Amino acid sequence: MTTSHLVSGVINWDKTIFVQKFPEVGEEVQVERVIDVPGGKGANVAVSSARILGRDKVALFGALGSDFIAKKHLEILRKDGVITDLIQFTKEAPSGQAYIIVDSYGRNSIMTFKQANDTLADRMVGNKNMLNTIRSSSLVTVIDPPLAVAKKLIFQSAASQKITVWAPGMLSSIGVENVMDTIRYVNYLVLNPSECSLLSGNSDPVAACRTLATKNKNMQVIITRGEKGCIFGKNDDIRSMPTVNVAGKGLKVTNTVGAGDAFLGTFCAMKILGKDDFDSLFLANVAGSIKTMKEETRGSPTLNELIEFSRSIKAKYKKLE
After folding, report:
1. Is the per-residue pLDDT at 307 higher than 60?
2. φ and ψ at 102, to 5 degrees?
3. I need a surface site. Which of 83, 110, 207, 252 has the fewest CB within 10 A?
């Protein structure tokens, strides 16, 4: 078995609450429906990539508790073709959970209770199975494990000359100057606007992208912007890529939760398949748009769905001054 893609990140069980509108402070609103589904950025990205690359090509490194939720996760991940051999189990904490509110426009607010996810330790990165998986992979995606784990994974990936993608998520709050020793080993830095602002200290996404891109001349910066598409920066070359307007195609945005994960998993899979940056970003934008039309968190498309949906779409990059 040869792994193409190693993903490390959070594995959660999501409780998603659908409402007409977000409540104001102190306001009570009616809940329309509630769903319980598997989620977590690490697991979502691994599944998204596996739906493109195929079974037993994507390995997930994360942590679960020794509970019933963990068993459900393993069953679902394996059904989606994800290799689960690197998942760690702990009795110190239960499996992680996320609590999500989605309004009638598909917008969301997420609260994460990381629990077992925070028990990952950097010593786990040095075991034989992990090192062999890194060596056999074409690309390593580090999302939101604890910082010490993220750093060690990135160092090991770079040492093995693999394409290294880092989506720091909540770690962005520590600021770029505190992760300079890590950023210099990263090939692609992926952030949403809020994370980009926190990491760079600049609320303007274009200026922030330019600032971050100069921190490592070999690093590309990707800022995902939902319905506004994404920004791609390398050194001083900053470009904007529009997303797919699903409303314009007569389709409805149902739930944006997981759209960024579909984007990231598809982008990484396309890079593994040899696509250039612009083609990979275009298809990643399409994947994110497809996900928004589905209620479940892991609504990322298969390769056939992606190809079929993208046939009628034309999009161009715009260089930003």
Report:
1. yes
2. -125, 130
3. 252
Phi, psi of 30 (to 5 degrees): -85, 135
Q: Give the bridge partners for 319, in sequence order.
A: 239
Q: What is the pLDDT of residues 271-306, one digit of tens each?
A: 999 999 999 998 999 999 899 888 888 989 999 888
Taking alpha carbons only, the member of 282, 299, 281, 298 closest to residue 290 is 299
* Cβ count near 228 (within 10 Å): 14
What the chain holds in terms of domains, given with CATH numbers, is: 5-9+41-93+121-320 (3.40.1190.20)
C-alpha 196/C-alpha 173 separation (Å) is 9
pTM for the complete prediction? 0.91
- Compute the residue count for the chain: 321
Residue 283 CB neighbours (<10 A)? 25
| Planar angle of CA 89, 95, 100, nearest 5 degrees | 150
**pLDDT for 321:** 43
pLDDT band for position 253 (cuts 50, 70, 90): confident
CA distance 114 to 288: 24
